[in-house]
Amino acid sequence: MSTSTPATTPSHEPSPTTIRADRLRQLIETGRIGTVLLAVPDLQGRLKGKAHDAPHYLEHIAGNGAEACAYVLATDVDMRPVDGYDLASWDTGYGDLRLMPDPNTLRILPWTPRTALMLADAVDTGGQPVEVAPRQVLRQQLAELAQLGMTAKAGLEAEFFLYPHDPARIADGRPLAPVSPDNLDYALDYPAPLAHYLRTLPEHLRAAGMPVEAVKTEGAPGQVEVTFPYGDPLQACDNHLVFKHGARAVAHEQGLVPTFMAAPATGLASGLHIHLSLWSQDKPVLADSTGALSPAALQVIAGLLDALPQLAPLYAPTCNSYRRYRPASFAPTHFTWGHDNRTCAVRVTGHGRGRHLEIRLPGADANPYLALAAVLAATLHGIRQALTPPPPITGNAYQATGHAPIPASLEQALTAYTKDHLAAHLLTPPVARHYQNGAQVELDALRYAVPDTERRRGFTRA
Questions:
Q1: Which of 130, 165, 200 is the last residue of a domain?
Q2: SS3 of 238, please?
Q3: CA distance 241 to 247
Q4: Which of 130, 159, 187 delimits the end of a domain?
Q5: At 391, which CATH number?
Q6: Given CA atoms 178, 180, 186, 190 in this order, what sign does their dihedral have?
Q7: What pLDDT sits at residue 7?
């Protein structure tokens, strides 16, 4: 993530990321676009929806939306109908909700011929936003921030691992060899398959209206990091889902497969770092006139350290998420903060008006809308309560004492999530309950599953 000065305030007008509806109509009428994907972000941070014939989309969907089973926002990673959700269940009959197109998200997908993509917002039968939908959860936090006279800007720093595609090994859960065998951190010379991918992906993203800030190979074999320019928080999350969609499509064309697991193998870890700044009337909130941290910035840091321990299921949503938090991994192990300190959970970075916070807690498997919503909820908590943070860590945060540890498991995180009802207070009870159930569903799915490591260690020893 660049430490250059972010632009002043987010704009909610259509940006170069998108094309306008009249342009889409022209492209459809001339036959250049034949399919429109209408997609909603699901709980796991994936695009779900339908591929509509383009003329049908113009005539029937563009102004009215399309129906989809409500379980797209109330299911697990395997798309199973599961119990415990108020939104959709066997008791409710698994009825529909409506996906209303957001025209500001319309774009052409260069990795899929003659195809455009439109993101949608989920609304109920009365036309009201579905409160638990990820985009709406984030919107609510942005609205509460606006009530304090502030806006946010965000940048997402995405890491993932790239492997040659081996369907048999993937199906069996066997380890894959990465696309490059060596640590190529900051390298500029790559093996041919990796070089081709790193050249093609940014070209496609730029053509989709999402120019990257930088692409680099990371500190583990086969690991890639992509950073995007600072901008509007909702747009940053929308772009992240489109980026993941494109990263998979480009990889598939080249016989590769990416994974956005937080810990794809023992000793490996990928993050989704969130860079955050706050603005009020075109002035930075986190920096004073000298570029140093403002009193409000200290309140924000205190809020992050106080509330994020109880919101972990929103930014570390899977059992695998917690295998990333280990010493000397560049992932944090305690809720700490420091200046330009990558061993901390919250890193102060940037200069002057560009002073901002890097929250290093979310893993690559995080839903960006929910992770950023958790960060903003904790931010608001710190400001409203005028909290004071502990002193910053100036050395190795892995060896620091007296700081709350990051939960060791999703089970521990879920216990903290329900403690003192802080999540319900910061998010609203229905939203907190919805994602509490999602975490419980994830736990139950793997509670009795026997991992490969146990089989390897115990098959001939038990």
A1: 130
A2: helix
A3: 10
A4: 130
A5: 3.30.590.10
A6: negative
A7: 41
Determine the Cα–Cα distance for residues 217 and 249; give it in Å rounded to an integer: 19
Question: What pLDDT is recorded for position 343?
Answer: 97
**Dihedral sign from CA coordinates of 75, 76, 80, 86:** negative
Per the structure block, which two tokens stand in for 39? 């997609």
Structure-token pair, residue 428: 């609203």
| Tens-digit pLDDT profile for residues 324-361 | 999 999 999 999 999 999 999 999 999 998 899 999 99
Beta strands per DSSP E along 249-354:
256-259, 272-280, 283-284, 337-339, 346-349
Amino acid making up residue 408: A
Q: Note down the domain range covering 414.
A: 141-448
Those residues with Cβ within 8 angstroms of residue 303's Cβ, 6 or more apart along the chain or in another chain: 378, 379, 380, 381, 382, 383, 385, 387
Report whether 133 contacts 428 (CB < 8 A): no
For residue 18, what pLDDT is reported? Answer: 59
Whether 276 and 396 share a structural domain = yes
Residue with tokens 């025209």: 103
Better-predicted residue by pLDDT, 429 or 175: 429
Position 100, amino acid: M
Query: What's 73's DSSP letter?
Result: G
pLDDT score of 2 more than 90: no
Q: Are 286 and 356 in contact (CB under 8 A)?
A: yes
Evaluate whether 316 touches 372 at the Cβ level (below 8 Å): no
User: Do residues 185 and 277 both lie within one domain?
Assistant: yes
Phi, psi (rounded to 5 degrees) for 278:
-120, 150
- Does residue 412 sit in helix, strand or coil? helix
Q: Which residues are CB-contacts of 146 (< 8 A; sequence separation ≥ 6)?
A: none
Amino acid at 361: L
